[in-house]
Structure formats: structure tokens, C-alpha cells
Amino acid sequence: MSEPIERAVPRHGRTRKLLAAGGIACLLLLAYFGSVFYQVWHQANSDEARPADAIVVLGAAEYWGKPSPILKARLDHALELFNRQFAPRIITTGGRGLGSEFSEAAVAREYLSKHGVPAELISIEDAGETTMQSAAAVAEIMDRMKMASCIVVSDGYHIHRIKNILEEQGIKVFGSPREPGDAGPWARGWLYARESLGYILWRFGIRV
Predict the structure, then answer these.
(1) What percentage of the chain has pLDDT greater than the value 70?
(2) Among 51, 149, 168, 177, which residue's Cβ finds the most Cβ atoms within 10 Å?
(3) What is the DSSP string of 48-102?
(4) Burial (0-12, 13-18, 19+ Cβ within 10 Å), 153
């Protein structure tokens, strides 16, 4: 009995299969990105503020010892939550910018102190250079002070990722975005997309 003859797969057939597999992979990636984008958008438009152990204010630029408009808006929102007694303590984050003698966290503490928050109720994290590093340091501060929950205050697009990072440290996190600025829908969409990419990279182990 003669052996069956193996028929070679035509090259164009293999190419079609590779293209089909690549197309499916792209569709899956787009679907995943779209899902994350929706989560970032939803979190950015949700205020979950409720009683917690601390309010964590994410850093933003400071100008010669004064908070930038973005940082000021975050701090004013944190002040409102503190004055409404959502939490008894505040943690500020953010290191020094290039060439600056002030850290974002220290500038934030100074601003809060001038607006009625006792200095002893404010902890600062001023060593982190990335969101991941700041989150790790905040988790360490909270663990040391026996705190288990926090309200994260930042721009809306930023909260989804920092919330997930802190929750991986066993912290109960509630997001409370500051009042949005005057950025248009295209600008906000770009921020959501950029933060979605940052979240996906973090999920794949790329720490940014």
C-alpha cells in the first residue's frame, strides 16, 4: 500500500492564516483597550467619597513653592473632604521637579496647613518619582500608621490606575476626582487613552 502523499500548504494559504490570526489578535487588543478606556472614564466621573482613614492627594507641579492650578484644585477638593470629616488625616505625595528645591508633597502640606489643617495630621510622601513608587510609599505609610482605607484625590483620569495599585496592597480605596478644568472632550479623551495605556502596561508588569 502506497504511503499517502503530503500536500504542501500553498504559501498564500499560510499568509491568509497569519493575517487572520493577526487580525483576531488586533481585535482582541482593541477590545481590551476599549474595556480599560471605559473603566478609566467611568472612574473619572464617579465620586465615591465616604468615611475613610485618610485622604491621599496625588501630586502635581509646583511653581517656586506654590501649588500649580492643578495641584491647588486637588488640594481644595481634599480640604473640602477633610472639613466635611470624611477622614481625620491627609497624605500628600510628589517629589521634587528638576532643579526645584521644593517637593510637591511639601508644598501641598504647606498649603493645607495655611488653610486650617493641623500639620500633625498631614503626612508626606516626597520620594516617589512615578505613580507606582508613590503608591508603594503611601501603602507603607498607611501600614505603619495602621490605616486600612483611603480616599484618593486626583484628576479624574488618574484615579483608576492609582486605585488599583493601592488595592493590590490590601487597601480599601475610594476615588474622588477634583472638579474638572476647562479641557475639552478631545483633550479629556486623550488623557483617558494615555492613562488606559499606562494601566495596561502596569498590568503587564511594566512599571510606569
Answers:
(1) 91
(2) 177
(3) -----SEEEE----EETTEE-HHHHHHHHHHHHHHHTTS-S-EEEE--BPTT-SS
(4) buried
Calculate the average pLDDT of the chain. 89
Query: What is the pLDDT at residue 131?
Result: 83
In the chain, the domains with their CATH numbers are: 44-203 (3.40.50.620)
* Angle formed by the axes of helices 104-114 and 69-83, nearest 10°: 50
105 Cβ contact list (under 8 Å, min separation 6):
59, 92, 93, 94, 95, 124, 125, 126
Instruction: With a cut of 90, say whether residue 6 has pLDDT above it.
Output: no
Amino acid in the structure at residue 146: K
Instruction: Give the whole-angstrom CA distance, residue 58 versus residue 60.
Output: 7
